[in-house]
Structure formats: structure tokens, C-alpha cells
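Suppose you are handed a protein chain with no further information: no name, no annotation, nothing but its sequence. What can you learn? This example shows the usual starting point.
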Amino acid sequence: MYPNTGYSAVYTQPQTAPSGGCPGGTGCSAPADSGFSALPEITGSLSSPSVTGIPMDRPMTVNQESLQYLNGFLRTQIGKKVKVEFLVGTNTMTDRMGILVGVGANYILLNESETDDLLACDFYNIKFIRFYY
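A reasonable first move is to predict its three-dimensional structure. Written in C-alpha cells, the prediction is:
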């Protein structure tokens, strides 16, 4: 998006006539040489400030805390019962079930329902997480 304008950019291949005029003899006043054209934002899209609540003059910061990363989303699910499936090695799947009690940068903490133990799980081996509501 162009900052502060609410417009999206679309790249098109620059087209100029051999004489340097407008493409196709359309009679336009300026040749299309930049390759970018601005299109108005679709009303009600997710990038609209009325939908996201984020002012258009601020760039959106994406870090590990944001909901666009699994860590950020899992932090919103702390306290829920989960079933986590792990890939161990090349073709062995195992699962663990419990209450999600913590999320770190590269691990999650589960309170196992059967033993009431605290289990630290490697974040990078997780393949699936089922959330029970």
C-alpha cells in the first residue's frame, strides 16, 4: 500500500509506443513509463482502517507476538485443553494432551491431564494442534 493514501499498487509492464507517445494511440497526456498504477482500496476490505482499527499512517508491525505467527495465536489460547501432534524423526507421529499453560519463543508448556505434570514441548516438531472448546 502507498503510505497515507489508502491506495494499493499494481505493477504492469510499461507500454510506450515506438514514437514515445501513449500506447495504442489513446491520446493520453503522459506516457505510462513507471509501470505502477494506483487503484483505490476496496471498501470493507481487511486492510481498511474501519475493519482493523489500525490507522493507515502507521506501518503494521509484525513480530512473534502478533497473531500472524503461531506463537502469538497460541498465547491467546492459554488455559484451553489441547491435543498437540509432533513429528519425531522422519515418519513417527506422537501426541500429547493437556492444558496449554505457556508459550515461549521455541517451546510450549502443557499441563498433562492424566499425570498433572508440566511438559515442555519443542515448538519446531509440532505439526497439528487441536483446541477443545
